[in-house]
Amino acid sequence: MSRVLIVDDEAGICWAFGEYLGDLGHEVAVAGTAEEGLDEARRAPLDAVVLDVRLPGVDGISAMSAFREHVGAAPIIVITAFGNLDTAIRAMDAGAFDYLVKPFDLDQAAAVVQRALETGWSTSGTADPTPGRETEGTAPARLIGGSPAMQALFKQIALVAATDVPVLITGESGTGKELVARAIHEHGARRDRTFLPVCLAALSQGLIEGELFGHVRGSFTGANQDRKGLLELAGGGTVLLDEIGDVPLGMQVKLLRAIEHREATPVGDARPRPIDVRFLAATNRPLTELMASGEFREDLFFRLSVFPIHVPPLRDRLEDVPALAKHFLDLASPRRGREVALRDDLIGELTRRPWLGNVRELRNAIERAAIVARGGPVLPEHLPPSIELPGRGTEAAEARGLEQAIARWTETALEEIDSGADSGLEVEGALYDQFLARVEPPMLRTVLHRQSGNKALAAQRIGIHRSTLRQKLKKYGLE
Question: What is the DSSP letter of 130?
Fold first, then answer.
């Protein structure tokens, strides 16, 4: 039996999580402050600690070094309701086993505790975050948001930043994929070296190889001297291969070799040269579809996506719009020394828009509105017209298509009933049950995927109770 300490000032969380872990056979101790938790750690050995960040008195992350003195290599799992990139980075730097965001699902949280106990965690972190890693709050361009989607993103960045594996960053145009790449670089071991973003779509097919790998003198007309490629020039740093989905097939082979063998062969030379760079890649194109059509190599995809990160579109985190708008308005306002407030009617208009251009479109709209406002309060009428891109499908068009699909399915089902092809549908309510069996599983899978498997957040987004969600998952075999 393992002894687990839960340190949280919310008595409800301590009770519910403690009861859950107790039912799994663990001995559970609870504390409302870091100081009380340290007393428990001194009283008897602990196998794991679940530690909240915001506590009365000493905060959880500041207390981790003291806990480490008493619990040794026992795993410490950090939980918070106010996570941001800095918090996630500090937690991982201090040696946290994992990082959970409230509201968390008890099944998921208990699974993290169980995994921590089984792995025999030995921390390599330090109680003092590495100097230079707390740069997120001061960077001129930074990731902003407190939504569950962004907190999950911050956790992913914190987990992968300290490693050197390739990362594939996906997301729609304007979501901030380059900012994610910069954050990974700035919080990693290569932060003091070059961060080099290369927009592959901007390079012609004839130039891309020479730009990336360099060339030797005489390799082609106009090559009057040897030239190092970008991969060699960024030695020791990080290279972001932006728009990776636009790379020609022939170049994909050479890129794969560079990533796997850490070497670059200049144009006109048969001798590969060693390179020391970390590879990040970004794209707004569906690489799985490109692989299916033969436009993108599977081996390159799997080599790049060792750690995939998806940046959520702005419409999936509208609760972050006010904070983003405030940030952009502060940057755009000539009254830099004064606090700029957002009116309620402006916030209402901003959160109603679809933002097909994502954060980039929001920033442009705020900058334009600040100019039109001429130093006064920004009003909804100062915003540019909402943009609807052809081919992206408006909500009305999508709703019509869905209605038509449902109507066709219903007609087919009714015909089967009338013809006696499926006698099971003749009982009262069976048609409705069969309809739910068709539409509920894909909806549940999609929402769970968006919420990284967190059932509490998924139930919240769907609008049902968590126990109802569990029943449906069990019913459809989706657990």
Answer: P
Q: pLDDT by residue (tens digit) across 81-140?
A: 777 888 888 888 888 888 888 878 888 888 889 888 887 555 444 434 343 344 333 334
Average pLDDT for residues 186-204, to the nearest whole number? 88
Return the number of other C-beta atoms located less than 10 Å from residue 135's C-beta.
16
Helices (H), 262-357: 287-292, 298-304, 321-332, 344-352
Across residues 245-252, what is the average pLDDT? 88
| Residue 414 in this model has a pLDDT that exceeds 70 | yes
- Residue 135 has phi, psi (to 5 degrees) of -105, -10
DSSP symbol at 285: S
Contact (Cβ atoms closer than 8 angstroms) between residue 425 and residue 416: yes
- Model pLDDT for residues 268-289, shown as the tens digit of each residue: 777 888 889 999 999 999 999 9
At residue 73, what is the residue type? A
Closest by Cα among 90, 109, 147, 92 to 8: 109
What is the maximum span of the chain, computed from C-alpha positions, in angstroms?
A: 83
Collapsed DSSP state (helix, strand, coil) of residue 118? helix
Which is nearest to 143 in space by CA: 59, 95, 191, 83?
A: 83
Q: What are 169's strand-pairing partners? A: 282, 309
Of 162, 194, 181, nearest in space to 95 by CA: 162
And the tokens for 123?
């921390």
First to last CA, the chain: 26
* Side-chain-facing half-sphere of 404: CA atoms under 13 Å: 6
DSSP assignment, residue 204? -
The H-or-E segment that residue 24 falls in is: none
Burial of 152 by CB count in 10 Å (0-12 exposed, 13-18 middle, 19+ buried)? buried
| Residue 44, both tokens | 């008897």
DSSP 381: G
Q: Are 200 and 244 in contact (CB under 8 A)?
A: yes
What pTM value is reported for the model?
Answer: 0.70
